[in-house]
Design goal:
Blueprint (H helix, E strand, L loop, with lengths): L1 H14 L9 E15 L6 E15 L5 E8 L6 E10 L2 E7 L38 E5 L10 E7 L25 E12 L2 E11 L8 E11 L2 E11 L7 E13 L4 E16 L9 E18 L2 E11 L8 E12 L1
Antiparallel strand pairs: 1-2, 1-16, 2-3, 3-4, 4-5, 5-6, 6-7, 7-8, 8-9, 9-10, 10-11, 11-12, 12-13, 13-14, 14-15, 15-16
């Protein structure tokens, strides 16, 4: 952890040297999605319209380094809850992130006509693991041409496990009290493209400085291959929440295939298999007595059709042992229409 902290100090020191900047350009992009959803988590039919706006400013410093600032308005309160400021140099990209910078690879297998499995819409909650964008953090990504096989390495560090959406400059950090999941989080991810059409990678997230209980830990790997109209992908994650004696942990496998029928129509199938492992103990010092396992599986079927600037879609999901409850079955169907602007 000390070495990672020192690395970020060096990176930030190099990137924070005083340079004058040329005037940048501001752009506004976004999208709107209207949905009708039936079922999921024992709920009724729901109507919703999401509105997402990205305000992005870009420019250059007088030494040629590029910079980017972005803030997003994407929740009911229309707060600027996701913000970033990045500087791209010949030595890589460094940035400071407020509720941004998810470098985990859990969804990189990227199969889904409407979106990746349960990340788009599902009747249950899958425990994938920790994500850096849950906290305010700093990050660094190596240059694209530094390593062979188009390899990029991403580092991220959250000095406090807090998520203060829209934190302004000079904001104070919250005090983290015990018991808690830890005081800091460090993460590293590797993504590479060894051959055309194939992308692979993995990530590790780890907390430290907690109250003596087991730390929050998660890791994942993925592979995605696209050839012609077909795309296939696989991913696996393991997640250990913070708790005494590591009594619970999750293992999830995700697989999917997608086909572009033509330029307008795309179909996909995903399956998520997530197991909750529980070690029963008599007390904090006792050895493991019994190990239980509940296997939740979710099948996703999606169809998307593009009409000009609009995308019409339908997503169906069926879950067995939903939310890691034995015998619990849930299903959901989502109809959507998305516009980009």
């Amino acid at each position: 952890m000390k070495k990672i902290t020192k690395l970020f100090v060096v990176i930030l020191s190099a990137a924070s040297l005083s340079f004058s900047a040329f005037a940048g350009e501001l752009s506004v992009t976004g999208g709107a999605t209207a949905t009708i959803k039936q079922g999921g988590n024992n709920t009724g039919k729901g109507l919703g319209v999401s509105n997402e706006l990205d305000f992005t400013a870009t420019g250059e410093l007088d030494n040629g380094y590029a910079w980017k600032w972005q803030t997003q308005l994407d929740n009911a309160a229309m707060d600027n809850d996701d913000t970033r400021l990045e500087v791209t140099t010949p030595y890589g990209k460094v940035g400071m992130y407020i509720s941004e910078n998810d470098i985990s690879t859990k969804l990189k297998y990227g199969v889904g006509a409407m979106g990746t499995g349960s990340d788009y819409a599902g009747p249950a909650t899958v425990q994938w693991g920790a994500t850096m964008n849950s906290y305010n953090n700093i990050g660094y990504v190596t240059p694209a041409d530094l390593l062979p096989l188009a390899t990029k390495i991403s580092f991220a560090f959250a000095p406090r496990l807090q998520n203060a959406a829209g934190s302004s400059a000079k904001a104070n950090g919250a005090v983290v009290t015990d018991p808690g999941p830890g005081e800091q989080m460090a993460a590293v991810a590797i993504n590479m493209t060894p051959i055309d059409g194939l992308s692979i990678g993995g990530d590790v997230h780890d907390t430290s400085g907690g109250d003596g209980n087991s730390a929050t830990e998660s890791a994942g790997i993925y592979a995605k291959y696209a050839v012609g109209p077909y795309t296939a992908g696989y991913a696996q994650t393991r997640y250990q929440p913070q708790q005494d004696l590591r009594s619970n942990w999750y293992e999830t496998h995700m697989v999917g295939i997608q086909m572009a029928v033509n330029d307008a129509l795309s179909v996909s199938y995903n399956r998520e298999m997530s197991a909750l492992h529980t070690n029963k103990v008599n007390n904090l010092s006792a050895a493991t007595a019994v190990s239980d396992e509940i296997n939740m599986d979710i099948n996703h079927y999606q169809v998307a059709y593009v009409i000009g600037g609009a995308t019409l879609g339908i997503a169906r999901a069926d879950a067995n042992d939903s939310d890691y409850l034995a015998g619990n079955k849930q299903s959901s169907t989502t109809l959507s229409m998305s516009m980009a602007f």
